[in-house]
Amino acid sequence: MTVGDNHHFFPERFLKNFFGKKNGIRFYDKDTKKISAERNVNSIAKKKYLYSVSYGDRKDNSLESEFQKIEDRFFPILEKITEGTRPVYENEVFALVEFSIFLSLRTPTIVEMANNAMKEERIYKNVITSILDEGIPVGLAEEFGKLLLSCEGMSYLHVLPYMLEQRIKLSSENYKVVMLTCFGVHPKFVLGDTYMICNFLEPHKQPSEMYNLFMEKVEIIFPISENVCVLLSPKKAEESNKLIPNKSLTIEEILRLNSIIAGQSEKYIYSGNKLELMRISSLL
Q: Which of the residue ranges 140-144, 174-178, 221-225, 246-250 would you say has the lowest mean pLDDT?
């Protein structure tokens, strides 16, 4: 499998779920306040060497190759759900939640946060301590610590499995899954480049950082197509893991959800219809 220098933080196959009428995607740039012409999925949501680990002048792109393997495993389930024509089983939806969390940890913001994390002395010491606790000799632990600090991308490579494991564990224990749909209704769901979106049920209790997730009174929103959105809603103690039936949203509910997604997106929002996107941007 050939891996190029430009790494998509949203796979092209995923972006196609948000196609417009001309098989392209529009985005709204919050900096310029302009809506783009329709673009091909290959030309957006990518960054050069985003997942590369740098060893001097050499770039290791093996992580991007591993990401593509994960995508291949989940896309048949994604296609089945977004079609909305075949039965979807509970284990398939939770597999989709895992994939959505995986996507949320691939965004440039998360990569940058992870790569900067080792610059904080407290976090760096905790990582070295955890390595020593695994029985790694002090000398090797120190050498690995130097790699974390000196090789761009190494920090993200190290903390990604932990972040993924913790978010999946917390979501399965504390949240129930709701499938929100808007088949046959306009406007459609938009997609923000931050991807993991928080709906604070008690706005006055918002955390200082948007990424401090999985708290009580917080819903997590994952758009997976222009017609389907996954919602993780806080689960009460007496509730089981059984799925709540699909909820078809009204136009007002879709607009409200889209305004939440748009408000937390860092730069651009995907949509297939210019007039609908203008309506969403006017709510910000």
A: 140-144
If one counts every other C-beta atom within 10 angstroms of the C-beta of residue 133, the result is: 9
CA distance 216 to 108: 27
Note the Cα 76 to chain centre separation in Å: 18
* Residue position matching structure tokens 């607009």: 255
Which two three-digit tokens encode residue 284?
A: 């910000």
Distance CA 119, CA 162 (A): 18
- Where in 148-234 does DSSP place strands (E)? 175-181, 191-192, 197-200, 218-223, 228-234
Task: Please give the radius of gyration of the chain, using alpha carbons only, rounded to the nearest integer.
Answer: 20
Confidence bin at 3 (pLDDT 50/70/90): low
DSSP state letter for 278? H
Closest CA relative to residue 8, chosen from 38, 40, 49? 49
Q: Give the integer Cα–Cα distance in Å for 25 and 16.
A: 8
Gap between the Cα atoms of 262 and 194, Å rounded:
9
Question: Which DSSP state fits 179?
Answer: E
What does the pLDDT read at residue 13? 87
- Tell the burial category of 60 from Cβ atoms under 10 Å away from its Cβ (0-12, 13-18, 19+): middle
Structure tokens at 164: 């993924």
Residue keyed to tokens 């009460």 = 236
What is the residue extent of each domain of the chain?
A: 6-281
Cβ atoms of 227 and 189 within 8 Å: the answer is yes
- Give the pLDDT confidence of 184-231 residue by residue, as tens digits: 877 788 888 888 888 877 665 555 444 445 556 788 898 998 888 988
Q: Which of 35, 11, 22 is nearest to 280 (CA)?
A: 35
> Phi and psi (nearest 5°) for 122?
-65, -45
